[in-house]
């Protein structure tokens, strides 16, 4: 037998999303340390990891604020539409953000951008997995 889904606490989810800024700072520090260890004079690795993590953070924040804007059992249809809208906004912000990164920051290391983005996605997934509401 299945159980109904537990109710999401909007303020707790918003609070956890804001705490992801510490993960962005951590990824940037890892990028700077990696650049120093590798002898990267232009800090291309640090720039790439910073931009990848910032793009991921902004996209995930937009999704969180759009998707969890409406709560309540009466608004089930609106909540589902907000989830779709949030996912579309997340993809749009990610694509535009990465395009601007590669166009306007050509010295950034491409692999570092992808690694920074993936590290933020992993950090967000782990944080939300352990959010028991």
How is the secondary structure organized here?
Elements: H1 10-38, H2 44-67, H3 76-104, H4 110-129
Average pLDDT reading: 87
pLDDT < 50 stretches: none
Total count of domains: 1
- H/E order of the elements? HHHH
Protein name: F0F1 ATP synthase subunit I
Organism: Moraxella pluranimalium
Subcellular location: Cell membrane
Membrane topology: Multi-pass membrane protein
Q: Describe it for me?
A:
- There is one protein chain.
- This protein is mostly helical.
- Helix content is 77%, strand content 0%.
- It has one domain.
- The model has no long low-confidence stretch (mean pLDDT 87).
Which features does this protein show?
single chain, 133 residues, mainly alpha, elongated, transmembrane, ATP_synth_I, F0F1 ATP synthase subunit I
Question: How would you summarize this macromolecular structure in one to three sentences?
Answer:
By secondary structure, the chain is mainly α. It contains 4 helices and no strands.
């Amino acid at each position: 037998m299945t159980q109904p889904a537990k109710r999401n606490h909007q303020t707790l989810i918003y609070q956890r999303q804001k705490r992801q800024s510490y993960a962005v700072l951590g990824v940037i520090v890892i990028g700077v340390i990696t650049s120093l260890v590798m002898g990267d004079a232009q800090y291309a690795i640090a720039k790439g990891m910073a931009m990848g993590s910032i793009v991921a953070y902004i996209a995930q924040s937009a999704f969180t604020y759009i998707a969890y804007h409406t709560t309540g059992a009466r608004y089930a249809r609106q909540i589902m539409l907000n989830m779709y809208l949030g996912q579309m906004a997340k993809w749009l912000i990610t694509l535009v953000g990465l395009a601007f990164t590669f166009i306007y920051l050509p010295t950034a290391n491409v692999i570092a951008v992808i690694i920074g983005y993936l590290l933020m996605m992993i950090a967000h997934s782990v944080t939300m997995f352990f959010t028991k509401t």
